TrEMBL record:
SMART domains: AAA (SM00382). Residues 2-226 form the ABC transporter domain. This is Putative 2-aminoethylphosphonate ABC transporter ATP-binding protein. NCBIfam families: PhnT2. PROSITE patterns: ABC_TRANSPORTER_1, ABC_TRANSPORTER_2. It comes from the Bacteria.
Length: 356
């Protein structure tokens, strides 16, 4: 699929298959094209080139009213002059159903989202989280084949957002409805999606499960956008060996040619801490991928400490490591302290100079 707005290409050669019952997240920075892709699926913005198929049917040129989907917007878009039950019933009334059937369906949905006692209230009388639940109930009222969520939780505060994302996922599993959600929140995508579609500059960078996206990113952009990532210039010296600064490291398998310039990357939580006397005490069995460093600064982040580490042989600025409370206490780490760290071979990733 391609989508252009004048001379601006918002989507470029996007191709994606979504299985029935899947929960898919479109993830990427602001302006990357994820909402444009969602709107193209809904028919709100027709694609410039390409096709959209749903359930084996080509819906590429159908208006939104003839496509089988429910949609929830970031702003909820509830009718302020209608009660909660009337908001949910609105779409059902346009299907020609009889009033007793509509009333029964509205009651069923209100029970499903836990707001049966609020049915006579107006949207302004509900909290943001409650309004979002009503918007969800309205979207699924007609049993659509596809549920589209456009950053549905971004307007809520952190605690409500965490609670609601669990509720939405449970609701989706219970209903079995195919769901596509747009978000720029990495944690939201990791916790909710069956698969994540990472989009950048109108192109799909990677599609995979949350674990695949996080542990095995296919590009440096994905590695840096999903979670935190250290990266340093390196040179490939052998199929599974690189030189970074004055240090030779073993690394995970990669496709960068020998002698080529590359980028070494490792996540802060993958750095293993050892004491300053680890080598002498036998704590470290091999010298492979071990470095002598100094703790230059520490940040307390609640469940762990973020430490900035520097070493003479490593160069290129600080290496960031996340150490648990127990590790910091056990090793007596503090600013200015010397220590030894280990970079596990399997977690030392290598990308080519372009970040692929």
């Amino acid at each position: 699929m391609w989508k252009a707005f004048g001379d601006f290409l918002a989507l470029s050669d996007v191709s994606l298959d979504i299985s029935e019952g899947e929960f898919i997240c479109f993830l990427g920075p602001s302006g990357c094209g994820k909402t444009t892709l969602l709107r193209a699926i809904a028919g709100l913005d027709l694609q410039t080139k390409g096709t959209v198929h749903q359930g084996g049917k080509d819906v590429s040129n159908l208006p939104p009213s003839q496509r089988d989907f429910g949609i929830v917007f970031q702003s909820y878009a509830l009718f302020p002059n209608l009660t909660i039950e009337k908001n949910i019933a609105f779409g059902l009334e346009n299907t020609g159903r009889k009033k007793p059937e509509i009333d029964a369906r509205v009651t069923e949905l209100l029970i499903l989202v836990g707001l049966e006692e609020q049915r006579k209230k107006y949207p302004a009388q509900l909290s943001g989280g409650q309004q979002q639940r009503i918007a969800l109930a309205r979207a699924i009222a007609t049993n659509p084949g596809l549920l589209l969520l456009d950053e549905p939780l971004s307007a809520l505060d952190a605690k409500v957002r965490i609670h609601l994302r669990h509720e939405i996922k449970e609701l989706q599993r219970k209903l079995g409805v195919t769901t596509v959600m747009v978000t720029h929140d990495q944690e939201e995508a990791l916790s909710m999606a069956d698969r994540i579609v990472v989009i950048n500059h109108g192109r799909i960078e990677q599609v995979g499960t949350p674990t695949e996206i996080y542990r095995d990113p296919s590009t440096l952009f994905v590695a840096g956008f999903i979670g935190d990532m250290n990266h340093f210039d390196a040179v490939v010296t052998a199929p599974e060996r690189i030189t970074c600064g004055n240090v030779e490291l073993e690394c995970a398998p990669h496709s960068v040619g020998q002698g080529a310039r590359a980028i070494m990357a490792i996540r802060p939580e993958d750095v293993i801490p050892h004491g300053a006397d680890a080598d002498a005490s036998g704590e470290v069995e091999t010298q492979a991928n071990t470095l002598d460093v100094q703790v230059t600064s520490m940040e307390f982040l609640g469940s762990y400490w973020r430490c900035h580490l520097a070493g003479e042989n490593f160069g290129q600025g600080a290496l960031i490591a996340n150490f648990s409370m127990n590790a910091v206490r056990r090793l007596g780490l503090s600013e200015g302290k010397n220590m030894m760290i280990e970079l596990p071979k399997s977690r030392v990733m290598v990308f080519d100079a372009a970040g692929s």
